Amino acid sequence: FKLGLRIEASLCGGLLFLLNVAHFGAVHWISAIDYDLALVLGLAATFILLRCHSQHTLFAALGFWVVMLAGIMAHPAMGMVLPFLLYLSWVRGQGLWQTARLLAPIVVMAAPLLYLAHTQTAEYTTTSSMWRFLATADLAQVAPQLAYALLWLLGRMVSTGHWLLFPPHLQPAWEPWLGVCLLSIVSWTAWQRNPHTAPWAIFLLVTLLPFVPASLVHTGVSRYLYLATAGSSVLLAAGLCHLAEMASRRLPSTEHWLLGGMTALLVISSVLALDRAEAVSRYASGRHYFNTGQFSAAGIQLERAIERDATIIPAAEARFFLVLAAMASGGKWEKALE
User: What are the backbone angles phi and psi of residue 5, rounded to the nearest 5°?
Assistant: First the structure.
């Protein structure tokens, strides 16, 4: 709304983001709370920057620096918001040079802070695995993989956006083609340089790019889509508003009814899909407990995953590990086969 979108599109975008299925992993797992915190802080920094353009005070600049640095420390991927802020200032005609001067201290201060955080982080993480992979990989061989991964992640944002029609652990061959379609739409939106929608197209791309290499070493990509789905949700809401407005030209006084109807259909589909996604999270939790030797907890989670929806998880593997967990914990493994 602060970027000029209509109130209907803003509210609809917020609702669609709240119910987005693609990023369910960032919501179900407390270990992924850094994604939530980073997005909140990054958007807050964007709001403060807009205030800095109208209020040239040291207090506003200090507020922007503190909040933006906190967002980057919450998750380094929020550093990609910096080029987004430059684009936002340029497309809105609000002082590109002034914005660059505000961002420069962030770059200077973020580098040592991120290095300090890296020294305090566990050695074996997804990020460290990603950097080791990139350091030893041949650029000529890894470049096509990165391009494919980008299209796949974009396609996954569409294929699981507000529905869950196939098990998320599968990778259908048609998903990258959905990514091509979404990339075309996002690129066209950015090319139009509409100050209301183009910034969100850029936001989608820049917040997704840091996770492209990570998707090559870790297949649980749901949380990687969290930041980018903020942009896709706003673009989808803006598209729905545009469709409703076009339809109302033939059917006067129906714009809000049409927008409400389309939004309601997406809400219903999302709620049903999120209920199924709970099975995926419980299965992943059960596997984690099993791998760490907590067999009783593993059995509970695997059993609940199967009861919730066995069609959306690897059911055979879930029952196999459920039997092993029951045997290891002294439970009745025969019941696990029922």
Answer: -70, 150
Q: Which residues, other chains included, contact 63 with Cβ-Cβ below 8 Å and sequence gap of 6+? A: 48
Give the separation between CA 167 and CA 92, rounded to whole angstroms: 42
* Per-residue model confidence as pLDDT tens digits over 210-255: 888 888 777 678 889 999 999 999 999 999 998 888 888 887 778 8
The whole-angstrom separation of Cα 28 and Cα 283 is 12
| Cβ atoms of residues 255 and 248 within 8 Å | yes
CB atoms within 10 A of CB 275: 12
Write the burial class of residue 168 (CB in 10 Å: 0-12 exposed, 13-18 middle, 19+ buried): buried
Name residue 312's amino acid.
I
- C-alpha–C-alpha distance, residues 32 and 281, integer Å: 13
Where would I find the H helices in the chain?
7-18, 24-28, 33-54, 58-74, 81-91, 96-119, 126-136, 139-159, 175-192, 198-208, 226-250, 255-291, 295-309, 315-328, 333-336
Helices 58-74 and 81-91, interaxial angle, to 10°?
Answer: 140
How far lies 316's CA from each of 110, 170, 322, 337, in Å?
47, 15, 10, 10
Q: Can you spell out the DSSP letters for 47-108? A: HHHHHHHH---HHHHHHHHHHHHHHHHH-GGGGGHHHHHHHHHHHTTS-HHHHHHHHHHHHH
How far apart, in whole angstroms, are the C-alpha atoms of residue 292 and residue 164?
29
| Distances from the Cα of 43 to the Cα of 54, 137, 203, angstroms | 18, 35, 11
Amino acid at 101: R
pLDDT of residue 181: 95
Query: Percent of the chain having pLDDT more than 90?
Result: 36
pLDDT (tens digit, 9 = 90+) per residue, 35-58? 899 999 999 998 888 887 777 777
Asked if 77 and 38 count as a contact pair (C-beta separation under 8 A), the reply is yes
Query: CB neighbours (10 Å) of residue 43?
Result: 17
